[in-house]
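The data are passed on as follows:
___
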Amino acid sequence: MTAALILGLVIGVFSLIGLTATKADAAVPPKPTVGTCYNYGWTAYNAMSQTGKKVSCSSAHTAKTIALGTLLSGTTRTEESIYRSASLEHISKTCIRALRNKLGSTYSKRNQSAYNSAFFVPNAEQFRAGQRWFRCDVVLLGKGTLKNLPTNRARFLEGVSLTQRTRGCLSAKFVGPYSCLSSHTYKSISAFKKAGTTYPTAASFERAVGANCPARTRAYEVPGKWEWQTGDHWVVCYERNSN
């Protein structure tokens, strides 16, 4: 059995964006709206703010806004402020719940998929104008890239099976889950609900994996603490797969 692969909300590594001065009469980008689709790539996915590349949801797109929230009072546009524990917990739980609602179906199917969420905050210009929202997008992760979302259904996984594109996979060096279309070492095969109400220890998770995952399991993924606190107690079992 490999070491536990513990994954929380995938949000990338954010950095402050350098912004050039704008003309005094330039319009400040408006607050985003739920339901807007975008076609951005890995670099934008890992940025603190993202305001461009809006596209029709009927055309190819890599992300869709699924929720808007309000930053905690006193939050500034710095990594230290955004990433302080209370702020990150507030943002993460909002996005976790929004993703769960957008995907639909069951915990087992959702957690075996490569769908995940990203969050963005106002850019410097918007922040100066008083905007204090954060936005949650649904994305389909690849291995260091974003895959086009394969559907625009109201509930992405409701009534459909996982495919090679949407199933979650892992590799020894690139923890996911990400789309099995990308090269991978492990592929999700099943999931089970971990008993208990208190967040388990690593040893407790490992014992549960031994008792509940198929014998061919070679890796597993457990919910992060914030996912656990929002009701997700499901552990995913992975088999080794070099395809």
About this structure: The two ends are 20 Å apart (CA to CA). Residues 1-25 have pLDDT under 50 and may be disordered. Helices lie at 42-45, 79-82, 85-103, 107-111, 124-128, 202-212, 225-229.
